[in-house]
Design goal:
Strand order of the largest sheet: 3-4-1-5
Largest sheet: 4 strands, mixed
Radius of gyration: 22 Å
Distance between the termini: 58 Å
Number of helices: 13
Length: 332
């Protein structure tokens, strides 16, 4: 069964990729991944560690975000911003909206816990749910957020290249081909829950949201309607059993080999032109393509840039370590 998302000309013109991470939206996807047995094995250690740290309130919030099936939209707004500000927005959700949203969710998910019927009218119960939502973020996402952000940002040059070379059609076709199919003017999204529905964008366009935890397509009602897709599916941010950190002084000896003039120029060029191809990098740095490729390889192996393949090109972007390296004072 599928969601059929109908586009008008205005919708195609307003379709875009999210330009910043959306913490609570990503939290819902992480909560689903935590409960799913079908997710990548690389998440197993993260699941084991997270489950052991869940508070009682976090487990309450978790029941509203199943591995498969719909969850109340007010819990996971598709918005960028600071986590505390977004949690405050959830706390201040009008109670009538909570009531309406829960009724709609219950129609599509009959197994919704019975206590949710009191949620709109019981202030203490609602406060406990919001506390659990914050606890979930602290447990599932907060220790790894810098790594997640860097990984999500690495997806943008790839989508920009798709948009430039093939327009919105290529963007919709390649974002998640296993679960999404473009049959103009309709985007079909396969739903493992068996839901079958027609969605009209009404001129608002579609928001594509790259996600660390999404291995299928997740549709969220708008406005605007959003569809999550796996960011950089051929790459992952590494070990999630320990928090991300920026390598410190112990790595400085390796970084010192990058102080040559040409390689520094290459690194600076990537910083100024994120998502540039090797050919573009060579032209902007004033070196031969073979030399640009060699320098990019060294920088990538040192962890200063990341490279993603798009068709026959490699697209290069700076990593947080690369930015820290460029911002380090000379005497440092």
């Amino acid at each position: 069964m599928v969601y059929r998302i109908h586009f008008t000309v205005q919708d195609l013109a307003r379709t875009r990729v999210a330009d910043a991470p959306m913490p609570l939206h990503e939290l819902e996807l992480a909560a689903r991944a935590l409960q799913s047995r079908g997710r990548p094995a690389r998440l197993d250690a993260w699941r084991h560690r997270a489950r052991a740290q869940l508070s009682a309130q976090a487990r309450v919030a978790l029941t509203l975000m199943p591995a498969v099936g719909c969850s109340p939209d007010f819990l996971s707004p598709a918005r960028a911003g600071g986590v505390e500000d977004l949690l405050e927005q959830v706390r201040s959700t009008p109670r009538e909206h909570v009531r309406t949203n829960l009724l709609e969710t219950a129609r599509r998910r009959p197994s919704l816990p019975a206590w949710t019927r009191r949620l709109a009218d019981d202030a203490s119960l609602f406060a406990e749910l919001c506390t659990g939502l914050g606890d979930l973020h602290t447990c599932l996402l907060a220790p790894h957020w810098d790594r997640f952000t860097a990984h999500l940002e690495a997806d943008r040059p790839l989508r920009l290249q798709q948009l430039l070379t093939g327009g919105v059609e290529q963007l919709l076709t390649q974002a998640n081909p296993q679960w999404m199919r473009w049959k103009a003017p309709v985007l079909e999204v396969r739903m493992p829950s068996g839901a079958d529905r027609d969605v009209h964008l009404d001129g608002e366009g579609l928001l594509l949201v790259p996600s660390m935890f999404c291995t299928r397509a997740i549709v969220t009602d708008g406005p605007p309607v959003s569809v999550s897709y796996p960011a950089c599916p051929d790459h992952h941010p590494g070990d999630l059993t320990v928090p991300a950190s920026i390598p410190g002084r112990s790595r400085s000896s390796g970084a010192s080999t990058l102080l040559g003039r040409t390689r520094t120029t290459v690194l600076t060029t990537v910083a100024e032109h994120p998502g540039c191809s090797t050919k573009e990098l060579a032209a902007r740095a004033g070196i031969a393509p073979a030399s640009a490729s060699e320098h990019a390889t060294v920088l990538r192996e040192a962890g200063l840039i990341r490279s993603l393949r798009h068709r026959n090109s490699m697209l290069h972007s700076l990593t947080p370590l690369g930015l820290a390296f460029l911002n380090t004072p000379e005497e440092g």
